[in-house]
Amino acid sequence: MLTASIVVYKTTEMELKTIVNCALNSTIHKVYIVDNSPSNESQSVINSYHSPKLIYIYGHGNIGYGAGHNMAIKKSIELGATYHIILNPDIIFQADAISALTQFMDSHPDIGSVMPNIIYPDGRSQRLCKLLPTPFDIFARRLLPKSLTTKRNERYEMHFMGYDKPWNCPNLSGCFMFLRTDILKLIGGFDDRFFMYFEDTDLIRRIHQVSITAFYPNATIIHAHKAEHRTSKTLLKISIESAIKYFNKYGWLFDKERRLFNKRAQTADAHIVE
Length: 274
Known about the structure:
This protein has about 270 residues and is α/β, with parallel strands linked by helices. It contains 10 helices and 11 strands. Strand 1, helix 1 and strand 2 (about 30-35) form a beta-alpha-beta unit.
């Protein structure tokens, strides 16, 4: 069984319908829409489908991105699902992408998480495979001129692996996470101390500790990424707070595991043979 969850907060009707339509037209069996909004306006949109595949969850307040998905992950595990997908509301995908990812995971039981090739609506690639971040990767590139950080950013975004082959990456985007539920049971899901931002880095890092976390280029989805934390002072503040929590948890300058995982990700051994 394959389940999925979408955490929404004041999501527009058009955006919600787009992602719900994608899910209903795929092999996903259950879709949990976890609404963190102050009002339940999205419920009428979900009810209009009259689909038993859609489960609307509301009334818990704005508990954060990871905590919202944890509610759905718990239900997925209780259902006995083999896989669970974390979906951003601004994702668009075709059914064949879900089928390809399922087949890839079925063929590789040592993989705990997989991320497909992710592109912008105009077709440009999003470089969402990353090394585990250092404080410099997060803070300095916001402050220094781009000309001084380009080479380091390219390494951080793992340009060296070409994005053309399956690869074991220690840090994958949370906009689309195809997860093995047995691994989620083992590690306990998202750390809900991260209200928003870095919850995906933390989750993938913990999955990477016990299994392979893979990039798979032979399935492609669209992500209409807005990077709102760069324009909203409130979201920027949350992003910085989450970064501080992350480095307090794992270490700022001294992080042996980060060095080990990042070194391994830059070798040919990280290539996953299909």
